[in-house]
Amino acid sequence: MTQAIQTPRDRLVIALDVETRARALELVDQLKGLVGMFKIGSQLFTAEGPDLVREIVRREMKVFLDLKFHDIPSTVAKAGIEATRLGVSMFDVHASGGAEMMRAVAEAVRETAEREGLARPVILAVTLLTSLGPKDLKQIFITERIDHAVTGLAVLAAESGLAGVISSPQEAMLIRHHVNRPEFLILTPGIRPAWAQAHDQKRVLTPTEALQEGADYIVVGRPITESDDPAEAASRVLSEIEVFERESPYPQGPYAKYSEFGPREY
Q1: Under the phi-then-psi rule, with left for phi > 0, alpha for psi from -120 to 50, and beta for the rest, what region is 63?
Q2: How remote is the C-alpha of 192 from its chain's centroid?
Q3: Helix count (H) and strand count (E) of the chain?
Q4: Does 42 score more than 70 pLDDT?
Q5: How many angstroms separate the CA atoms of 16 and 22, rounded?
Q6: CA-CA-CA-CA torsion for 194, 205, 161, 113, nearest 10 degrees?
Q7: % of the chain beyond a pLDDT of 90
């Protein structure tokens, strides 16, 4: 299953990296209508729990549950079932958990959604965290180059039945080359508008640069959520996305060019 991108705002995911339910819901109310989805990560979910997810869904907004499940296949499959029942539109797992784990969660979610009449969430695989640089990888005994590791994990995720991956924007084009499926989704964190500071992520690009590299979804956090006027900041990013789509040279859509790529060996 893939998540339909019908308007520019569908591409924009807001990271709710805040500490309280009250602040999260305040941002949801301020940004509703300007963004496509809200990302809830480990800190906020641990502090406020699944009730916050239910409340955002009740307000008719989509939720990306960013908990990066990574465990034995049966445990991750059960977590995926509960995420489906919670009503999230998207959640993620670590590709490094392996093909069996990814296949297990994909199948469990599909069966549960069909059996219980639920919407089936998109499942994305995390390739490498955008905070990791070459030195960090060596410290955890990953000797592959970043681009090799990312593309290898992306291919594994595609072969395991997941809808797409999360990767830094710099690797998006490489993934498009290696996974020759136009419907394969790429979500990129580490997005910083030109007017924002890079903070703690090492492999970052602007919204336009990320989309040009092949991203479907972009995640923006502090440049919007910590702005004096979050709605105005979101509107600026949305305008950038609109310009990208309007100026795409491909009449079939911004990503029609990827049909030109043939399969490549990794």
Answers
A1: beta
A2: 15
A3: 11, 8
A4: yes
A5: 11
A6: -20
A7: 72
Band of residue 1 on the pLDDT scale cut at 50, 70, 90: low
Separation CA 203–CA 128 (nearest Å): 11
Residues 63 and 89: beta-carbon distance below 8 Å? yes
Q: What are phi and psi of 18, to 5 degrees?
A: -125, 170
**Angstrom distance (rounded) from CA 157 to CA 169:** 17
DSSP 164-188: EEE--GGGHHHHHHHS--TT-EEEE
What's this model's pTM, rounded to 2 decimal places? 0.89
So what's the pLDDT on residue 264?
32
Encoded tokens for 57 = 């869904």
Backbone CA torsion sign across 231, 232, 237, 240: positive
Residue with tokens 């093909």: 99
The pLDDT value given to residue 198: 54
Q: Is the per-residue pLDDT at 214 higher than 50?
A: yes
Place of tokens 């893939």: 2
Give CA–CA dist 17/174, Å, rounded. 29
Tell me the domains of the chain and their CATH numbers. Answer: 8-260 (3.20.20.70)
Pair 172, 215: CB distance under 8 Å: yes
Instruction: Name residue 110's amino acid.
Output: R
- Burial call 193-212: b when 16+ CB within 10 Å, e when fewer: eeebeeeebebbbbbbbbbb
Q: How far apart are the C-alpha atoms of 10 and 13, rounded to whole Å?
A: 8
Instruction: Tell me which residues are annotated as active site.
Output: 68
The structure tokens listed for 10 are 């569908």
* Rounded distance between C-alpha atoms, residue 256 and residue 235, angstroms: 26
The candidate with the shortest Cα–Cα distance to 15, out of 171, 176, 234, is: 234
Instruction: Please write the tens of the pLDDT for every residue from 90-104.
Output: 999 999 999 999 999
